[in-house]
Amino acid sequence: MANPPGVRKLLPLLSTPHKAGRSALTCQYRCGNACAHELGNTSDNAYFGDVVKEALSRRGMLRAGALGALVATTGVAGAAPALAGGSASAAAGNGAANGAADSQLSFTPVRPNTDDKLTIPEGYKSSVVVRWGDPVLPGAPKFDFDHQTAAAQAKQFGYNCDYVTMLPMGKDRALLWVNHEYTDETLMFRGYTGGAKATVEQIKIALAAHGGSVVEVERVRGTGQWKLVTSGRRRYNRRITAQTKMRFSGPAAGSDLLKTAADPKGLAPVGMLNNCSGGMTPWGTVLTAEENIDQYFVNGDKVPAAQRPYITRYTITEGVPEESRRFDRVEERFDLAKHPHEANRFGWIVEIDPFDPDSTPIKRTALGRFKHEAANTTLAKDGRLVVYMGDDARFEYIYKFVSKERYIRGNERHNRELLDEGTLYVAKFTGDSPKGDIDGSGTPPKDGEFDGSGHWIPLVSGMKSYVKGMTAEEVLVYTRVAADKVGATKMDRPEDMERNPVTGGVYVALTNNTDRTAAQADEANPRAANKHGHVLEIVEKRNDAGERSFSWSLPLICGDPEDPATYFAGYDKDQVSPISCPDNVAFDRDGNLWIATDGNQLGTHDGLFVMPVRGRERGYLRQFLTVPIGAETCGPMVTEDQRSVFVAVQHPGEIDGASPDKPASRWPDGDQPRPAVAVVWHGEGQKIGS
Ligand code: FEO
Ligand code: CA
Ligand code: CA
User: Where is this region: Disordered (predicted)?
Assistant: First the structure.
């Protein structure tokens, strides 16, 4: 179906974009201006939903046989995926016309726009599920923008929702887990002029507004709409904040590098920060990724000389910038001059068990420390657990973790230790076209495609380091430095990364990298000054997530389709929607790729897109929704029944010059903008995208 007329018309920019394409506010608050299942069974397509549902019912969380509305978007694809046609590599990699089924997507795409609302396709409905300040814990006070308190915030939904996932408790009840990535004090408090002058209460509110939330939700019977449960026991509802007691596990737990005055054993970190996206485990827990942790500390330049290079490599704040949040004014540990190792205690993948409200969140050190964007899991053909991870910054790397032991169905105690022992790898990509063909313009090489081969370089396995000059503990705590040493491929901001539950292809969103020069262009990152980003597809050897070599290609090179330096897997560019800055990726049960954007550089708002990755419609990208002024689209999550899609609308109204007295957005309630999770469903109950 063709785009509506005028879909390409570029609209004026709302504000001058910052270097990464965001408003200066987003840059400052989000990333601290960082720009500057037994599954030896290989015969069946074991969907993640089925694996988790079984695990949860064993734990008594889910009535046997209940068809939960479990998220189908996280790709525990099990063993070799069942393919609709052709070999794995053909379907996932190059199969434009391999006879695979069409996508069954038939909605009319939304037009790119700059409207201050959630714009959805005709025939669909939407509603806000939960917004900043809504009650999470029983007894939470009603949200009062001008009289917010830290005590209230600690019981209410936090700020800037990002990763969203669903854990079923039956057909019409579920838990939602939502990350709260960061706070934007300029929009949260009237007259805010920086952490140096902030009230202590404001700083405490910010600490409490970080972290994550578990909330119980219920389906509006017979529809795809879900609502927050606001009465009754809600025994699982929970807030996790920057002040929640956690623990380290894995090889680096107890390392000298993690010890502080408050925690001389290096085992008990407090709080999590900047949790961006995440993933789920086959045993039904959540993995949440600490991303831009560098901005929360002061005096990074005052650490001992031997630690300095690592502070620099992780871009930890030096000095005491007035505009920073100044958490150190409330908790001394954020001052690295006094507690130099505190920064090492952030930047991890944290595991949370939403069905055990008393559980201690676990920072899993075997997965390395960097600016973790997400952590999506799958199982290798032999049943080992695999976790895919990106480090979201310019010229950073793509990682995967492969557990030593295999996942054993029903053996909860065993499975829960899989994340503590295994091998951490980093990716190396090699193009198959001559270097001269890659000129930085984005013009495809003579063989017609940006593609090639690659392999996973081992960094560390338990207490064995594969990196010369670094101990295993050093590799885990200073993973970026280790990856530098082994010659990993520098990517254009590797964000979300997930395995397709149908084809087995692994997809990586590479958001952008305006700093890449033509000389630095390579076949996997082929555009200089890459404003709009691209999507990378990895097909591992024998389509086995446990393998160490792979082939890869770029099915999507983003931008305005009229721009010759764009590519939509060879699909007719007259038919596709423009897209810029792919960030979060997810799959529906049919294996269609859903892409959320952050920082649209085409002059219109961010949104959610869907693109088939196999069959005749491979590359047929269509825009499903747009978000309000200043917002980015997070989540996204398509429920397993494909009757609902959830998105987190993060930082609405966050544009330069905006403040509570001058709000740039009035979404969602016509008052101050409030970051919120929304759900979209078809008015007549049809499948999402139909
Ligand atoms: Fe929090 Fe990389 O986006
Ligand atoms: Ca090529
Ligand atoms: Ca993101």
Answer: 653-675
